[in-house]
Amino acid sequence: MKNIPIFAILPFVAALLLNACHKTEKTAGITNDLSNISGSWRLESRQYPGGGTYQADLEHETWRMRLYEGDSIFYEYGLRCDTSGTVIMPYSRNYFTLLLTADSALAYYEGEEPHPLERLGDSALVIQDFGSRYTWRRYPLSEEQRQALLSYGGDSERSIVISVAEHQLKRENHLLTYVLLLVIGLLLVAVIYARRTLLRKRHIERQLRAISEENQLRPAIVSDALQRVADEFKHSDYYTGLRHRLRDEEVLSEDDWREMEQQLRAAYPDFVRRLSGLFRLSEVEWRTCLLIKLELSPSDMTKALCREASSISSIRSRLYAKVFGRKGSPRDWDDFILSL
Q1: Are 98 and 70 spatial neighbours (Cβ–Cβ below 8 Å)?
Q2: Rounded to an integer, what distance in angstroms lies between the CA atom of residue 322 and that of residue 337?
Q3: Looking at residue 27, what is its pLDDT?
Q4: What is the pLDDT of residues 59-107, one digit of tens each?
Q5: Within a domain: residue 79?
Q6: Checking phi first, is residue 111 left (phi over 0); if not, alpha (psi -120 to 50) or beta?
Q7: Which helix (DSSP H) or strand (DSSP E) does residue 74 occupy?
Q8: Alpha-carbon span 222 to 164, nearest angstrom
Q9: What pTM value is reported for the model?
Q10: d(CA 137, CA 123)
């Protein structure tokens, strides 16, 4: 036996591979298309072997229906709809098999009986049975109707009635349930908010009492010493330079704000502790209080915070209302900050 050169058989191998790929692609396309048989179908017409045609009367007749569930079961049932509701009449539960033959054709069986099947796009099927051609058209079945049919299975002794009034009542009950849940949720949020507000108010009242008692019990010699430190700070190079920078409308950096807080901690040891102990302030609220403690004018505050004068006034009034639970002027909050 002679040795055959490998290059001589390469064309035959390539042809076999291409043919296999072509068959695989064709088979895959048909296999994917088979899944579309699942769902509900309504009998549209029947063409008899002799040539006559029965056309379903969709307005007056009970519709003949099929529900293909999964890959092996289908249900036959009747469906009648009118103004009062929907009636589902289960007929039978059957088994089917859908295969792809070697020549890429569809083989459809109901039980063990073969039935030629033809696809008309995605919306219609033609199934032959004893010479007649049955055309089935896709029909959208609601999930409620589907579950009702599946729960009865093939019990043809009973009909399923889905009343329009009952269906409407269920929808209204569901809507009422959602509304009640929403109201309960809003009430819970309101209760939680009210409780947090009350707890914060009590905390602030305790802090204010502690500040007042601390001031009353502080010896005079200590108060005088703290006042001298504060006076020296107001005449320091840092304080004078900061006021000049703000008058020149110089923008303060993050490092400038950190240094300002450090200077105030040194000049007013109780200020930062007392203020931060009241409640959590936002960044702009905190910086506004620092500027007030420095006894800067509202115009200098607007330059330092890059905000309008009305915004600065609103912040000061809002802070007073938060702490004391009543309306107050911006000046009232300033007096409180200066007293810390």
Answers
A1: no
A2: 14
A3: 37
A4: 777 889 999 988 889 999 888 877 777 888 888 889 999 887 777 677 8
A5: yes
A6: left
A7: strand 73-82
A8: 84
A9: 0.48
A10: 6
Percentage of the chain exceeding pLDDT 70: 85
Distance (Å, whole) CA 313 – CA 329: 8
Single residue among 140, 158, 176 that ends a domain in this structure: 158
Report the domain count for the chain: 2
Structural domain that includes position 88: 37-158
DSSP class of residue 116 equals -
Run of H or E including 107: strand 106-110
The answer to whether residues 131 and 47 belong to one domain is yes
Q: How many residues belong to the chain?
A: 340
pLDDT of 318 reads: 92
Q: Position of tokens 């004893």?
A: 130
User: Is residue 262 one of the residues assigned to a domain?
Assistant: yes
Residue 29: CB atoms within 10 Å: 10
Which residue intervals of the chain are DSSP H helices?
6-34, 143-152, 164-217, 220-234, 237-247, 254-267, 271-278, 283-293, 298-305, 309-324, 330-339
pLDDT in tens, 97-153: 988 777 767 788 998 889 988 888 888 999 999 889 999 999 988 888 888 888 875
Mean of the pLDDT values across residues 33-56?
83
